[in-house]
Amino acid sequence: MENMENIMVKTVIGSFDSVDDANRAVRELRAAGFVERDINLIANNVQRGVATEGHDNAAATGAVAGGALGGAAGLAASLMGLAIPGIGPILAAGPIVAALAGAGAGAVAGGLIGGLAELGVEKDEAEIYAESVRRGGSLVTIRADESRADEATEILRDAGAVDIDRRVEEWRSSGWSGYDASAEPFSFEEIERNRTRYGRRTDQSGRMGRS
């Protein structure tokens, strides 16, 4: 029976340049009847003038910056600020919080990758999506019955999820050779440059993750 469930349930994941777009995706998923216990939201929370390491610091900034995020997403009860070495401060909401918080302040850089893996995301895919968060992005994941996986994919795409394959090609053209767990988190200024570069470009037509 467990094997049948694994076959019938898919994890769909989308990467967003804008937290607002990620929030909109969550709202649209809920409006379409997907339940909160199947939805996760992860957002980069690096802020100007704030150190990128330190669990307590990340939690404090998350409590402030995440108020609107959690309220809009409908996931406020589970919202938590965490620091992931190699990625920096993040905000997370949904079932993935338990996996990330369980790793604690001493979490290795693979903490987010492990959390995504627990949702059924393949390691190679998880590394790509962790890199997207490191660069300032936000993730929305949804566990959906196989019969609704295409619907969930379309909702994420319509909300602004990027073509992750195209984005990886751009990273590689700029010298990126793969996820590096020992890399320094991006600074606020680097993240802002990324966001300015991508803006509201229309590169949402390609593949998103599905496991």
Low-confidence stretches: 1-5, 51-68, 105-109
Task: Give the distance, in angstroms, between the N- and C-terminal Cα atoms.
Answer: 19 Å
Q: Helical content, roughly?
A: 40-55%
- Compute the CA-based radius of gyration: 16 Å
pLDDT averaged residue by residue: 79
> Strand-residue fraction?
15-25%
Structural class: alpha+beta
Descriptive key words:
single chain, 211 residues, alpha+beta, six-stranded antiparallel beta sheet, 9 helices, globular, disordered N terminus
Give a quick precis of the structure.
By secondary structure, the chain is of the alpha+beta class. The protein has helices at residues 2-8, 19-31, 55-73, 96-103, 111-118, 123-134, 149-159, 164-173, 188-198, and strands spanning 9-16, 39-44, 80-84, 88-93, 138-145, 209-210. The protein has one domain (2-197, 205-209).
SSE diagram, text form:
Blueprint: H1 2-8, E1 9-16, H2 19-31, E2 39-44, H3 55-73, E3 80-84, E4 88-93, H4 96-103, H5 111-118, H6 123-134, E5 138-145, H7 149-159, H8 164-173, H9 188-198, E6 209-210
Antiparallel strand pairs: 1-5, 1-6, 2-4, 2-5, 3-4
Helix pairs in contact: 2-7, 4-5, 5-6
Q: Could you characterize the architecture of this molecule?
A:
- The chain is of the alpha+beta class and 211 residues long.
- The chain has one domain.
- Helix content is 47%, strand content 17%.
- It has a 6-stranded antiparallel sheet with strand order 3-4-2-5-1-6, with helices on both faces.
- Helix 2 runs antiparallel to helix 7 (149-159), helix 4 packs antiparallel against helix 5 (111-118) and helix 5 (111-118) crosses helix 6 (123-134).
- The longest helix has 19 residues, at 55-73.
- The radius of gyration is 16 Å and the shape is globular.
- The relative contact order is 0.22.
- Residues 1-5, 51-68 and 105-109 have low confidence and may be disordered.
